[in-house]
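Please go through the protein record below and see whether the fold suits the sequence. Record follows.
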Amino acid sequence: MTTVPNIRNFSIVAHIDHGKSTLADRLIQMTGGLSDREMAGKEQVLDSMDIERERGITIKAQTVRLSYRAKDGKDYIFNLMDTPGHVDFAYEVSRSLAACEGSLLVVDASQGVEAQTLANVYQALDNNHEIVPVLNKVDLPAAEPEKIKQQIEDVIGIDASDAVMISAKTGLGVPDVLEAIVTRLPPPKGDRDATLKALLVDSWYDVYLGVVVLIRVVDGVMKKGSRVRMMGTGAAYDVERVGFFTPKMQQVDELGPGEIGFITAAIKEVADTRVGDTITDDRKPVTEMLPGFKPAIPVVFCGLFPVDADDFETLRAAMGKLRLNDASFSFEMETSAALGFGFRCGFLGLLHLEIIQERLSREFDLNLIATAPSVIYKMKLTDGTEIEIHNPVDMPDVVKIAEIDEPWIEATILTPDEYLGSVLKLCQDRRGAQKELTYVGSRAMVKYDLPLNEVVFDFYDRLKSVSKGYASFDYHLTDYKPADLVKMQILVNAEPVDALSMLVHRTRAEGRGRAMVEKMKELIPPHMFQIPIQAAIGGKVIARETVRALRKDVTAKCYGGDITRKRKLLEKQKEGKKKMRQFGKVDIPQEAFIAALKVDS
């Protein structure tokens, strides 16, 4: 196996907002990937989605090929992968890292090491990457480069004495990064004469070309016109186009070992191209597959329903299209008595849920209601069988359940010292168990075991508010543990509303139930009859509020006379209201669902 000396494959890893995409911009600019005119007025060239630009976050990992002439006079090819920093998109990071040999670790010189800096570096180290620390934003008045170098050594344990000092915004020090890539990152290894073996890194749907597949060639040569086979699915295709991104699409005749590029082969469905699959020659396939990466497993589930029932087919088509470009998003049809037809969808986290919801409403002009997010519970039944449940409505009868297990996570939180008390209290309130507490300079690093159920609601928002935005948070799933969970239902006029039923811990049920019924009381408009709103566990009501009836003043026309005349009219009205309550239907406005689902005191 020989090395390919003139190629460097690397990714940029960092916490959110530490400047990955801006550094990628400067690298593209300085190597002439795009002219200054094409860069003008466009920040973060690789963030192609509107949402990415507006929120200033990277959602999809992007790749670009750059040409660079080093100081030693040789020409090099750089394959750069810009990765997301947000915890929900950690799977995008993992597959980008698998295609590279090295990483640039970008750390903000004013903020230092954050929770996701750690998570992403450990992923890079697991992939045996060579790591080059880069301190960004050194031109800021608050920058403390020497202190941050020490912090990188103390917390992560990698030598940061020769970290590259840069300002990605102004371009200061970026030429040193290009030289460090050449001198400090290893070239890829590969055998040109061996049978074709390539890693499927990513795939997305293009309206004109069908499915575009991003690949990293390990051995052999990927040629235009050859017939290839996906080893995971066993499907064979004829390669129509071979090329790479500069970030514009460039077609070539072949890609050799160590190169990253794309192929198209008239593939109709993105589902046919499994990320992490091995692509090989159809006529003489290799025997061993490359170690793929773990498929993205949905963690949070919620129901999405169209506000207007006529939009159901539009919603189905829209979800199919989003699924084409996002393999981690899954959905299946479900019906609800209160909300009609909709879909039960699986997401990687709450940000992922929010992004998908926003894309549905924006790109497809849909008006949607989302039910309460829930996680996957494992239930052991009395007859010895085990089932998985991600919709509280499907929960079997309590008598049949022997044990309910819920998923737990290990959370790493970094926070400035003055907010430590509030952060610990927040974790304690969410049934967390503290594992360790260490100090990184003036900041505390806490590790907590927390039930995922308590995190999916609004833990991230609360964490940001108690720490005034300074705390950072990263988590990964650990295992399932038995828990004392109960199914809480909301009854409106004695009818259960399935969209609002949820599994909660017994100790939290009463508080949650009370908050829900109080909120519903404000939101349901008065009808001609009295409406009781109750929160119940099984047959036991734990909280109740009543919406007063609209009343007509029936005694207005009684002038004088005996009190019995008034009483008779009032009794008659009371009977009428009672009858109405039996047959009346309560209209719950859509806002009530949305607001009630946001309740979490």
About this structure: The two ends are 60 Å apart (CA to CA).
